[in-house]
Amino acid sequence: MLTRRDTLAIGLGVSAVAMLPVTASATPVDDAIAAFTGGADMADSGVTITAPEIAENGNTVPITIEAEGASEIMIIATGNPTPGVGRFMFGEASGSSLIATRMRLGRTQDVMAIAKLADGSYASTQVEVKVTIGGCGG
Amino acid sequence: MTEVRPRIRLPRRASAGDSIVVKTLINHTMESGQRRNSAGENIPRQIINRFTCEFNGVMVIDAALEPAISANPYMEFEALVDQSGDFVFNWYDDNGETYTATETFEVS
SS3 of A11, please? Predict the structure, then answer.
């Protein structure tokens, strides 16, 4: 039979377990970054994002990323339900490390781009895009 | 879904060794998996999860795409054309289908 003291102890245990993932693991954004860089340091120059300051329609936000000499670029929408947007690998027949596409943004947020540069180091930058109508559907 | 039809735009002319701008679009809903229908049920995800472009068999770009790419995914990038040849574009659908487009490009 459970005494009042046992119940309290169980309660404490449960809350401790429930809190563990929050403290032990990082946010989805950190996970996405780590999956790309493997936790390496990122320089803050060398990547350029061109995106509108204000996007009226979050369903289709044009974005251009350029990173000279980069072999790979990753785009992360830090405020989306899942932060990943895309990973772009440039092959031997690539003319420049540039990609322009259109993406969905659920709300106003920072959009981040990380580039893997020719020497194997990483660089990143981010811009805030204000979204008037979110693009993740109801 | 209506028939998937890729569209490609290449410049009219370029010299050997030039870097040319390649623009591609394909009509696809890019169903994110986040939306619900009127009955409140989750609409399953169905997106183009990968896009590739090759020129004469050499990779130009290989992209892994997520649901955050807008419907009718648009991709613009640059390709180095060292000689005349064929561009091959592939879009990989979550449902296992691959949509392919080919464009011949002549350098001057």
Answer: helix
